[in-house]
Amino acid sequence: MTKAVGRTGLNVQRVYTTEGVHPYDEVTWEHRDVVMTNWRDGSVNFEQRGVEFPDFWSVNATNIVTSKYFRGAVGTDVRERSLRQLIDRVVLKYVKAGVEHGYFADDKAAEVFEHELTWMLLHQVFSFNSPVWFNVGTASPQQVSACFILAVDDTMESILNWYREEGLIFKGGSGAGLNLSRIRSSKELLSSGGTASGPVSFMRGADASAGTIKSGGATRRAAKMVVLDVDHPDVEEFIETKMREEDKVRALRDAGFDMDLGGKDIVSVQYQNANNSVRVSDEFMHAVEAGGQFGLRARQTGEVIEHVDAKSLFGKLSQAAWACADPGIQYDGTINDWHTCPESGRITASNPCSEYMHLDNSSCNLASLNLMKFLREDGTFDAPLFAKAVELVITAMDISICFADFPTDPIADTTRKFRQLGIGYANLGALLMATGHAYDSDGGRALAAAITSLMSGTAYRRSAELAGVVGAYDGYKQNAEAHQRVMRKHAAANDLARTYHSNDAAVQKLATTEWQKGLQVGARNGWRNAQASVLAPTGTIGLMMDCDTTGIEPDLALVKFKKLVGGGSMQIVNQTVPRALKALGYQQEQIEAIVEFISEHGHVIDAPGLRPEHYEVFDCAMGERSIAPMGHVRMMAAVQPFISGAISKTVNMPESASVEDVQEIYFQGWKLGLKALAIYRDNCKVGQPLSAGKGGSATTEAKTETVVEYRPVRKRLPKKRPSQTVSFTVGGAEGYLHAGSYPDDGLGEIFIKLGKQGSTLAGVMDAFSMSISVGLQYGIPLEFYVSKFQNQRFEPNGMTDDPDVRIATSVVDYLFRRLALDYLPYEKRAELGIFTADERTAQVSADYGQVDLEALQVGVEAPAAVEAAPKPVGEAHSSTELVELTLGKAADAPLCMTCGTKMRPAGSCYVCEGCGSTSGCS
Q1: Is 368 helix (H, G, I), strand (E, B) or coil?
Q2: Which residue among the candidates 353, 364, 896, 909 is catalytic per the annotation?
Q3: Cβ atoms within 10 A of the Cβ of 272, count?
Q4: Which SS3 state, helix, strand or coil, does residue 735 take?
Q5: What is the CA radius of gyration of the chain?
Q6: What pLDDT does 170 receive?
Q7: Angstrom distance (rounded) from CA 523 to CA 464
Q8: Among 680, 692, 678, which Cα is nearest to 891's?
Q9: Pseudo-torsion of CA 133, 139, 145, 147, nearest 10°?
Q10: Cβ distance 542 to 550 under 8 Å?
Q11: Distance CA 552, CA 907 (A)
Q12: Are strands 147-149 and 362-370 parallel, antiparallel or unpaired?
């Protein structure tokens, strides 16, 4: 697509665009009103009417981009009103800088580059990280980096400067991490003769500072990472900080304080504004493996001042993570073995979400590609197109460093010398499902690894070409041998990668070519960038690109909320499900029935016609079939060798998981070559109860209740009563259903004729009918029977002759859904997910009159099956809250500060589906 021409600049060829046609002229634009409210109090958080977006952008993407990324005072003429203005503000700045710094061969190449970037952003092929949209092209400092690593030394001046630098970074809309291990422990002496305070004491001040600063002016709480080496004498105190705070939350809650998520007293809890991680060495992990002793070392002299049992310390680390999800773990040996610049310093820390790892006082700007945009109609991944897109994006990312501003001089100096970049992707979970791969499968991991290898291989090859045009990074000469060694390690890992299908084999073959080219060009030119790739959470930008899944994550659940034009929301089955069913070979009628089942139940278990061996394709992070913890770890291990940095991801564990299970996850993370790992055990955090609550106060529970004994009374039917008879066919089996009612309404008896008179089947159905009839007369509600018997699965099953119930999993399933349609009011049927054909049609017609239709563009002509009928879901206002209500357990996510909804896990950080606010650095 593009090639380096000596030192004269790049020639850029068209990929997506057509010469003589501007990308804006190829789409249909429409005007929309954006009004965003806080559901808790009904207040309007944001309002801007008449904004302009392409007709294929979702309501949610429109709302988030308008409220978060449009610049200028709302209500004034200077306020941006169109996506064109936003894209032009950013792209034109990039192109101008590229021209000024000699990236392009001529003006024609620059124009093509401008059009290609514009087209890709317009069509949601990729997105830059949020600071680019916040700052580039405005009067503000041109901060483009989302991730920062700071440094702090063992002096009060340095510690106070740490507080200041973090504040400046949070204010700019980004996050920062640092390692506190240089600070003397509380077991060491000061030069004055007193005892040092230790790093944990200084964490308290930094935590309080972070808690008062909203990043980007008013966009989100500060995001930060605090790391401590495992050989620091205060490591045990560090491990226990958050766990002890959880004990405090319990005590205060039991004393009557409001300690719920968002409660007025929760602010008294400390250390909650940072992710904590322990940096473990290979020496320590070998000691854990062998059951040996491990030395804790003085910070200034390096001498061992205390020996501890390594396995016991590892157990305390795992115990704390089990109890409150902190601390995470970072594997120092692996991190620094893949370090391209060891002569310039070790890698000691990471950004808040753990994906960026490089030198202290450095930064990384991110961009992520939407993998679903490269999935062809035939289900194959378009590797050549993906490689061309990576070329364009990584070129733009490098150009940004030429004009970028930075919050501190040391960060500016390091970043300009080493030019760290973080290209990544989103929608991997959706891509794997759409191609019929289970997330936790050899085939799924092979495809993910091949795509990741192709991305990094292409990025480094382009970086080497850029070095031939505008020069290698300043620190390359000093680190040339190490950088080349790491490139060879990546290429060797690619050669060892195993493929399982023609799809991943084709991607891996191109990746091999890219690594070989990159090594050849790099040996001649060096590389322009010390780092090329990371896997970030892609929280807000994932929503901007209308992605179903974030970063490397699987889907949260199969059913989620969708915002409607004009306000409100509805529950939908994820767009990827029909496409996955088509890829697995199901016919249109089967797809409709399965998707309808999912819309009613939220899972695929016993879905009509779905083969059990395909269940795993639809496994999610939460739900009836959630992915096993090691499934998450294995996916990370599959792609880690092809990432320059690390992976932002949390491993979900069930509430029943033990401390030993956490130990095994952390130990296997080291064995499998990960750089960082964090876990979350369901419901482990006290401050995250379900909104409905699971119990009353202590006072209420202590009350003595009067016990009243109730006995059932049978209400018999009169001798003359209304009735109806329905003939039916299920899977070829014919029968009759006779239903008798009370005169004042209400079903009172049923008789079922199925099979020949005198047969065993006929006798069983007679006895079954009698049992149900007596139960109805004793007051058992019909809806109870329906909830118990619908979806029962046994032969005969299949197609019916009833237009309201097209497919039944058994005769019993059909009979009780038919009874529900005939005798239950709409509200009760809606709770059970049972509707007539006319009701479904009316709902879809009504909803589609006000819903943007991109959710239907999934390659399957089944609109009625994709959108689930709206049904009461309690007080859910986001996909996370919907999953919580369905499963009866709390998700690992805080409440959004802006709109009050429960945020959604995104990597090891969180994103709000409603307004796009994040707790991380995307």
Answers
A1: strand
A2: 353
A3: 19
A4: strand
A5: 30
A6: 78
A7: 9
A8: 680
A9: -100
A10: yes
A11: 7
A12: antiparallel
**DSSP of 747-789:** EEEEEEEES-TTSHHHHHHHHHHHHHHHHHHTT--HHHHHHHH
Amino acid at 644: S
Q: Which residue has the tokens 């930075």?
A: 406
Would you tell me the crossing angle of helices 282-290 and 659-671 to the nearest 10 degrees? Answer: 130
396-399: long-range contacts at Cβ-Cβ below 8 A with a sequence spacing of 24 or more? 396/94, 396/98, 396/113, 396/117, 396/128, 396/367, 397/128, 397/365, 397/367, 397/421, 397/422, 397/423, 398/463, 398/466, 398/528, 398/529, 399/94, 399/97, 399/98, 399/101, 399/103
User: What are the backbone angles phi and psi of residue 330, rounded to the nearest 5°?
Assistant: -125, 135
Q: Residue 897: its pLDDT value, please?
A: 62
pLDDT in tens, 754-811: 877 778 888 888 889 889 998 888 888 898 899 888 888 888 888 888 888 888 888 9
Q: Would you state the structure tokens that stand for residue 733, as one six-digit string?
A: 């089996």
The strand pairing partners of 753, in sequence order, are 736
Q: What angle do CA 398, 399, 404 make, to 5 degrees?
A: 100
> Would you say residue 46 has pLDDT above 70?
yes
Closest CA to 921 of 360, 540, 645, 400: 540
Summarize pLDDT for 17-41 with one digit per residue, the tens.
999 999 999 999 999 999 887 665 5
**DSSP class per residue in 125-192:** SEEE-HHHHHHTTSSS------EEE----SSHHHHHHHHHHHHHHHHTT-EEEEE-TTSPPTTSB-TT
Q: What is the dihedral of CA 152, 326, 641, 622, to 10 degrees?
A: -150
Residue type, 372: M
* φ, ψ for residue 624, nearest 5 deg: -60, -35
Select which of 135, 273, 351, 427 is catalytic: 351
Higher pLDDT among residues 837 and 375, named by residue: 375
| pLDDT, tens digit (0-9, with 9 covering 90-100), for 374-418 | 999 999 999 999 999 999 999 999 999 999 999 999 999 999 999
Tokens, residue 847: 């909803």
β-pair partners for 855: none
d(Cα 155, Cα 541) in Å, to the nearest integer?
A: 39
Q: Residue 235: in which H helix or E strand, if any?
A: helix 235-254
Cα(806)–Cα(263) distance, rounded to whole angstroms? 48
pTM of the predicted model as reported, rounded to 2 decimal places: 0.79
As beta bridge partners, residue 559 has 573
Which listed residue (114, 355, 749, 867) is catalytic?
355
Distance CA 673, CA 772 (A): 59
Question: Residue 564 corresponds to which amino acid?
Answer: L
Question: Does 652 qualify as catalytic in the annotation?
Answer: no
Two structure tokens written together for 844: 């879809």
| Residue 364 annotated among the catalytic residues of the structure | no
The 10s digit of each residue's pLDDT in 608-662 is 999 999 999 999 988 788 999 999 999 999 999 999 999 999 898 988 999 999 9
Q: Average pLDDT, whole number, for the chain?
A: 86
Tokens of 160: 């106070």
DSSP codes, 787-845: HHHTT---SS-EEEEETTEEEESSHHHHHHHHHHHHHS-HHHHHHHT---HHHHHHHHH
3-class secondary structure per residue, 424-483? EEECHHHHHHHCCCCCCCHHHHHHHHHHHHHHHHHHHHHHHHHHHHHCCCCCHHHHHHHH
The string of DSSP letters for 645-710 reads S-B--EEEE-TT--HHHHHHHHHHHHHTT-SEEEEEETT--TT---TT-SS--HHHHHSPPPP---
Strands 44-54 and 126-128: unpaired
Beta strands in 10-157 (DSSP E): 10-12, 29-37, 44-54, 126-128, 147-149
Clarify whether 351 is annotated catalytic.
yes
End-to-end CA distance of the chain, in Å? 28
> Rounded distance, CA 869 to CA 835, Å?
9
Please identify which residue in the block is written with the tokens 């399957």. 860
Q: Residues 432-466: pLDDT tens digits?
A: 999 999 999 999 999 999 999 999 999 999 999 99
Structure tokens at 679: 């876990």
